[in-house]
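1st attempt posting a full record on here, be nice pls
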Amino acid sequence: MVDPPNRASEPQEGSGGMFDSIAARYDLLNRLLSLGIDQTWRQATAAELGDAGVSRVLDLATGTGDLAIQIAAKYPDAQIEAVDPSSKMLDVARAKMGARGLLDRIRLEIGVAEKLSYLNRHFDAVSIAFGIRNVPDRIRALTEMGRVTRSGGRVAILELSEPQGGFLGPLARFHVHTVVPWLGGLLSGSREYQYLQRSIAAFPPPSEFARMMEQAGLHVLRVLPLTFGVCHLYVGEPRRAA
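the predicted structure (as tokens):
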């Protein structure tokens, strides 16, 4: 007789352990589930980090390193700290960056957004793509992002969202609610991609998340809807006391 699965031994949803289990297939699934548009979203995020003088960047929830690689291409003189809680995702990132000759410019480190070891105002810019949704204490993470960003520097947050209005809204919602968990389950693990769909639906609407950023001490410069609202890019800067 087959023993029932031990749920207590399964990694917590949204944790580094959960992403360890899908690290080898993560890039392929991203390309398929987003129809390849996710790389365009990352390019837009990198472009919002500042001008050509950006020299120190922190990329949180770096995963397999796609955004860090985009940042390195956009800012050839930048040194990048790339942080993620999943060691296996970082293993994939390390292989990709090594193949591109970027390991002298991108330093990979295990860590979480809520507790950063860096000095105040150390970075010109901080980014996080598809990661703030998985952070248990978002206010603390946002506060930390502002703390380590210099005055006048940029904080760019890219996150999936629940499409609302518009002619293509129902089609986009069908993709998020039906296609994402089905295809993700078919190619990887149904548990992980059911979580993805639930976490997108549970994420605050753009206006509410922007207020959360303000509450954490970030002045929101703009909120950019991407691809019919499937994704939003939030751009802010630290708000310092006069």
